[in-house]
Design a protein that fits this description.
The complex is a heterotrimer of chains A (about 290), B (about 280) and C (about 350).
Chain A (H helix, E strand, L loop, with lengths): L1 H31 L6 H19 L3 H22 L9 H23 L13 E4 L2 E4 H23 L1 H11 L1 H6 L4 H27 L7 H14 L5 H20 L5 H15 L14
Antiparallel strand pairs in A: 1-2
Chain B lengths: L4 H8 L5 E12 L2 E12 L3 E5 L6 H8 L7 E7 L5 E3 L13 E3 L12 H6 L10 H5 L3 H20 L15 H12 L6 E5 L7 H18 L2 E5 L3 H7 L2 E6 L2 E6 L1 H6 L1 H6 L7
Parallel strand pairs in B: 3-8, 3-9, 6-7, 7-8
Antiparallel strand pairs in B: 1-2, 1-4, 4-5, 9-10
Chain C lengths: L14 H22 L6 H26 L6 H18 L4 H23 L4 H21 L1 H4 L5 E2 L4 E2 L3 E2 L2 H23 L2 H11 L1 H6 L4 H27 L1 E2 L6 H14 L4 H17 L13 H16 L5 H18 L1
Classes of the chains: A mainly alpha (about 290), B alpha/beta (about 280), C mainly alpha (about 350).
Chain lengths: ~290, ~280, ~350
């Protein structure tokens, strides 16, 4: 039983990491119709920025994380201004390939600026606590809570604020949204900025276990994409919930079946689920009109 | 495939000279009935028109016949090119043309990156038989086949007055030409029933008169029936042997052009709007 | 503006492009001679051979993306599988090269067909994600099944031995690669200009029209995907026999993306374009950039260059560089006319 609780607690943390990343992906997808394959790489880049600041200033990790998020914000805005905004008329497949180009740019820039050695990023807090024979680190609690709070705040804003309404309108139908006076280019820019920040937070939460290196977010990126597939591309909450499910499934499979092949089994399971629910667990069926 | 009693009845009562019989055709989209219990039949060598105000469901009817949509209820009995009578409902869209039923689209679905003659050649895709190996090695069988059907396509283009642009890309051709290319494409597999979705849209008066002649010629030359949807009333009354008028997916009246024009319900729903 | 008549695509006499491809192959065959004469560096043959092998793989992906409108992100996995199988059959099992070639292409194709059978029942994006997952799983297999694959140490093989007795050396293997490339170019050309090729183009241009004309979309997509996987596996076999080493970490998503970049940069639906694209993506970094004074020393510059190039081309030249040539010609002609 205690093992199950342990796994549950771990899953909340892992799920949170995936959920932040997945939220970034779905935000960009629904507002600019682009599947952003570069989010993991951009997050990695900003994680390097944060770690760099940490190493050179000795500031506490949580403060550096905020700087990392700001850096990500700026990078997101730049990417949108310089590239994405010019690609509005491009077809969806080509847009995806543009994000592939972004991967290359950041993968090339990161070692150029930060060197090729992996860097260490510490936990936000140290120490641990026991709950009914299961141990949970304070850091994990922080990660879980921060993740949930950020997502709750974002969802609240999406539902209640003017910005949120603009985002939902753009996501639903960007042409009509523009006609109604919503500044869709700004919305898109905001999405890229927020997504980069979310991804960077995700990377920094992950960093203590993987170290900050070029490929640190590859696994998360793929699972974030799969969260969107599993959760459905038509809602914002779908991928987030799917991310927690995947986090849980990943830990369960890792423990009970095999930790080496857990990823592979997970991929196959997700692909299998999608066979039966092609629009995702929370997706709605779209009728194609000829 | 076992037939239920409905289908057997439909087939039984399908006259020897009837080529298509729609019965009780219905489809709804999210609670909104797009087609409501529609029934009509088309005879051999008949030009049959479907008219109705915008949004009446005409293209939806076409999609239900050609199985791009699966109707919620009803049967679509067709006398195919082997002279067998069968219900098309439930078949996959790509199986329809093999039976001798071919269609055009309201949005003119041609391939911009291909030449005119290549677009027309796609019309007889189902006739090609050479294997993949034969095609990639350009073995004699593949070459002969390609030459034979290319010649046929060029013949059709000559008939439609399009031979001089046969190697031009479809991209950039004027709308009237595109409609003629699509029409040419339907002739490649010797159809028994051609469904035309607004063939005269975008054509001027001269082109429209030419089209009327063209459609008549096609019917005579290929011994086929034609089902068409059009807004141009002159076109429809000049050309069609019989007309079916629908409104909000429901049948209003079926009859000769004169009968339809005289029908009060049709006038109220459509002709009375004064948009000629 | 409308007065200018659209030129027909290069569908003139069928013989011409094929003759060009053969000529191109002959030119490529001159390379070893130039090396012997000391004009070209020995290491350049490796780079050229790699470029040509990647071009073969890219031609397969071009059939899928360019003509059928589907995206596969699994190229790395299938090509990698080709390398490992080729090494296993020739080096471990000592099978003849020809047999190994056939099996090493067939097995990935079977996996591809199974993947496609399932994936293609759903919208296009599913194939992209499924192939990505398969590719990652394969990479894991390359690492974990180390009793066969040697894990991170990598696997090795030798130059091919044709017909059981004719042992090729480096130069002759290069010749073999060139011959395969020209054959694949010709096969692709014939395929695209056949009725099957037309069906694929129709499918990409208008699913509705394709279905109305009797084209079974599912089946043709499966065919295009199987061919793409086959070309990737073939590229893998050739890679194994020329480079002689394969490592798991080569076969990553980044590699699959590079292949995609080849066809986007060079020109989708263009066979010469694919060759151009391969030279740019895989040749420019090693052949040009690394030789430049300052830039050549900086790590990662090649990657950045490729990334920027891809983005620039999509934004300004969505049809690929291959059309740059015809645009330049046209501009020169209008300039000439204005000058008269």
């Amino acid at each position: 039983m205690s093992i199950l609780i342990q796994i549950l607690l771990n899953s909340l943390e892992t799920g949170g990491i995936y959920a932040l990343a997945a939220l970034g992906i779905i935000l960009i997808f629904r507002t600019s119709n682009t599947t952003n394959y570069a989010q993991g790489t951009i997050s990695m880049f900003n994680a390097f920025v944060a770690t760099f600041i940490l190493i050179n200033t000795g500031l506490p990790a949580w403060l550096v994380a905020i700087f990392g998020a700001i850096s990500a914000f700026v990078v997101g805005v730049l990417v949108d201004r310089i590239v994405i905004s010019k690609a509005i008329k491009v077809n969806p497949v080509a847009k995806q390939i543009i994000t592939l180009g972004l991967i290359m740019i950041f993968l090339g820039a990161a070692p150029m600026i930060f060197g090729t050695d992996p860097l260490q990023f510490p936990r936000f807090v140290y120490g641990s606590h026991k709950i009914a024979e299961a141990t949970i680190s304070y850091n994990a609690i922080v990660n879980i809570i921060v993740g949930i709070v950020i997502m709750l705040v974002l969802f609240y804003l999406l539902q209640k604020s003017k910005w949120g309404l603009s985002v939902r309108a753009t996501a639903s139908n960007d042409i009509v949204a523009r006609m109604m006076g919503i500044p869709t280019p700004l919305i898109t820019m905001g999405s890229w900025a927020i997504a980069a920040a979310l991804g960077t937070l995700s990377a920094l939460m992950l960093a203590p276990t993987t170290s900050v290196n070029l490929t640190m977010m590859d696994g998360v990126q793929l699972l974030a994409l799969l969260s969107c597939v599993l959760g459905g591309f038509q809602t914002f909450y779908g991928p987030v919930i799917a991310a927690y499910i995947i986090g849980m499934a990943s830990n369960l499979i890792s423990f009970y079946i095999s930790s080496i092949w857990s990823d592979s089994i997970l991929y196959l399971l997700i692909l299998a689920v999608i066979l039966f629910k092609p629009n995702g667990l929370f997706g709605k069926k779209i009728v194609k009109k000829v | 495939m076992a037939l239920n009693s409905n289908e057997i009845n439909g087939i039984d009562t399908m006259g020897k000279d009837t080529i298509l019989k729609i019965e009780d055709l219905s489809i709804a989209f999210g609670g909104l009935k797009a087609v409501d219990s529609l029934s009509f039949d088309i005879k051999e060598k008949e030009i049959f028109g479907l008219i109705g105000p915008n949004g009446a469901g005409k293209t939806t009817v076409f999609n239900c016949i050609t199985q791009f949509y699966k109707p919620d209820r009803g049967t679509v009995i067709f006398r195919n090119n082997k002279n067998e009578v069968e219900n098309l409902v439930g078949k996959k869209p790509h199986e329809i043309i093999k039976k001798g039923l071919v269609r055009t689209f309201q949005n003119v679905e041609l391939i911009k990156e291909l030449s005119v003659v290549d677009n027309v050649l796609v019309g007889c895709h189902i006739e090609f038989e050479a294997s993949i190996i034969s095609q990639i090695l350009k073995l004699p069988k593949a070459r002969k086949e390609e030459a034979k059907y290319r010649e046929k396509a060029e013949e059709v283009l000559k008939h439609m007055g399009l031979y001089n642009i046969k190697d031009h890309l479809v991209a950039g051709q004027p709308y009237g030409v595109l409609k003629r290319i699509e029409l040419a494409r339907t002739l490649m597999c010797e159809p028994k029933l051609i469904i035309l979705d607004e063939p005269a849209a975008g054509l001027n008066d001269t082109e429209t008169i030419a089209l009327i002649e063209m459609v008549r010629e096609i019917k005579d030359k290929f011994n086929c029936s034609i089902l068409l949807v059009e807004h141009d009333m002159r076109f429809v009354t000049d050309l069609c042997d019989r007309i079916c008028a629908i409104s909000f997916g429901k049948l209003l009246a079926i009859g000769t052009p004169q009968e339809i024009q005289a029908n009060e319900q049709v006038q109220a729903a459509y002709l009375g709007k004064g948009d000629e | 503006m409308e007065k200018r008549q659209k030129q027909p695509i290069a569908k003139m006499k069928k013989g011409n492009p094929i003759r060009n491809y053969i000529l191109f192959g002959i030119v490529l065959l001159l390379l070893p001679i130039l090396v012997e004469m000391g004009i070209v560096q020995y290491s350049h043959i490796t780079i050229f051979a790699s470029i040509l092998i990647y071009a073969i793989v890219s031609l397969g992906l071009n059939l899928l993306v360019g003509y059928s409108g589907l995206v596969s992100l699994g190229t790395a996995g299938f090509m990698g599988l080709g390398t490992y199988l080729a090494a296993y059959f020739t080096a471990d099992l000592k099978l003849p090269f020809e047999i190994s070639l056939i099996i090493s292409v067939a097995i990935p194709m079977i996996i591809g067909v199974i993947t496609g059978l399932i994936s293609l029942r759903i919208e296009g994006y599913y194939l992209a994600i499924a192939t990505l997952a398969i590719s990652e799983i394969l990479r894991k297999v390359f690492v974990e099944l180390d009793f066969v694959t040697n894990g991170f140490s990598g696997k090795s093989a030798n130059y091919p031995k044709l017909l059981g007795f004719f042992q090729l050396d480096r130069n002759l293997t290069y010749v073999l690669v060139v011959i395969f490339l020209v054959l694949i170019m010709i096969i692709t050309h014939n395929f695209v200009n056949s009725y099957t090729g037309r069906a694929l183009s129709t499918m990409r241009g208008s699913e509705a029209a394709a279905q109305a004309m009797g084209i079974n979309i599912y089946r043709y997509r499966l065919l295009a995907f199987a061919v793409a996987v086959g070309f990737a596996a073939l590229g893998g076999v050739l890679y194994m026999h020329f480079i002689k080493y394969t490592y798991p970490n080569t076969w990553t998503l980044a590699f699959s993306l590079n292949i995609l970049a080849v066809i986007i940069i060079g020109g989708v639906r263009s066979i010469p374009g694919t060759i151009v694209g391969s030279f740019i993506v895989f040749g420019v970094p090693d052949l040009i950039l690394k030789k430049l004074p300052v830039i050549g020393q900086i790590d990662g510059m090649a990657y950045i260059f490729n990334g920027v190039l891809i983005i620039v081309i999509i934004l300004f030249y969505p049809m690929g560089l291959v059309h740059l040539w015809s645009d330049v010609k046209r501009k020169l002609m209008t300039k000439k006319r204005k000058g008269e």
